[in-house]
Amino acid sequence: MDKIKEMPQFERPRERLLTLGADKLSDAQLLAIILRTGCGTKNALSLAMEIINRFGSLRSIDAATHKELREITGLGDAKIAQLKAAFEIGKRLVAEKACSGAVFQGSQSVYEYFAPRLKTLSQEKFYCLILDVKNRLIKEYEVSSGTLNESLIHPREAFKEAIRVAGAAVIFVHNHPSGDPEPSPKDLAITERLKQTGEIIGIKVLDHVIVGDGRYVSLANRGHL
Predict the structure, then answer these.
(1) What's the pLDDT tens digit per position in 144-186?
(2) Hey, how many other C-beta atoms are within 10 angstroms of the C-beta on 13?
(3) How many other CB atoms sit within 10 Å of the CB of residue 70?
(4) What is the CA radius of gyration of the chain?
(5) CATH architecture of 103-218
(6) What is the DSSP string of 61-107?
(7) pLDDT in tens, 105-117
(8) What's the distance, CA 100 to chain centroid?
(9) Distance of alpha carbon 58 from alpha carbon 27, whole angstroms
(10) Long-range contacts for 46-50 (Cβ within 8 Å, ≥24 apart)?
């Protein structure tokens, strides 16, 4: 395979981006720019196409482990780090945009805020969104990481930051790595415990949103809050 610099200029990914704009490039062309170089007989574009063919989608590439990525000839630690960094920047950009003046008016807006970060994770993470009286985001913080249980999601840890910044209300969010957002009995028990704690300390629990693969469940909509 010819090197990218030996391709016609209008076919080179970097030149196409500068001329036409990033939104006009294919997934493979964007990945090729991130990878910068290929390996052996593969140029960066061929390597990018091989990665996409192997994993099937950008989302699957993002979710792939370091070990899985290393199985592709030409992907060393440096290139894997470049890919992981690029995906993380994308997630943070989405979160930053959503966070700027974010007002949560329902479970759908909560899902849209968190889905880019949570839907590809292989472990459960539990977050608290702290809101003011107009449901505007004051702060978010991670309460726990790992398999959820009532000892990990202790009310003291779940509410401590909301108390510190004088939040008016909170929304709890966590993901199900299985992709199925249906609440477990443990999820319902934790939600009831947090609801009762919020009533005692005067911080309203507006919702507990469980994020799955392309869908979510709002425990407020289900009548649990």
Answers:
(1) 887 655 446 788 889 999 999 899 999 999 999 888 999 999 9
(2) 22
(3) 14
(4) 21
(5) 3-Layer(aba) Sandwich (3.40)
(6) HHH--HHHHHTSTT--HHHHHHHHHHHHHHHHHHHHHHHTT-B--SH
(7) 889 988 988 888 8
(8) 17
(9) 8
(10) 46/1, 47/72, 47/74, 47/75, 50/74
Positive or negative torsion for Cα 6, 12, 14, 16: positive
**What sign does the dihedral 159-162-197-173 (CA atoms) show?**
negative
Can you give the pLDDT at residue 190?
92
pLDDT for residue 1 is more than 70: no
pTM of the full predicted structure?
Answer: 0.59
**What CATH number has the domain spanning 4-95?**
1.10.150
Q: Which two tokens stand for residue 203?
A: 């911080």
Which ranges in the chain are annotated with CATH 3.40.140.10? 103-218
Domain with CATH 1.10.150 in the chain: 4-95
Q: In sequence order, which residues have a C-beta less than 8 Å from that of residue 48 and are 6 or more positions away?
A: 27, 28, 29, 30, 31, 32, 35
- CA 90 to CA 93: how far, in whole Å? 5
Residue positions counted in the chain: 225
**What's the whole-number average pLDDT of the chain?**
85
Q: Report CA 114 to chain centroid distance, whole Å.
A: 6
* Beta-carbon contacts of residue 19 (< 8 Å; ≥ 6 apart): 10
101: exposed, middle or buried (C-beta count within 10 Å: 0-12, 13-18, 19+)?
A: exposed
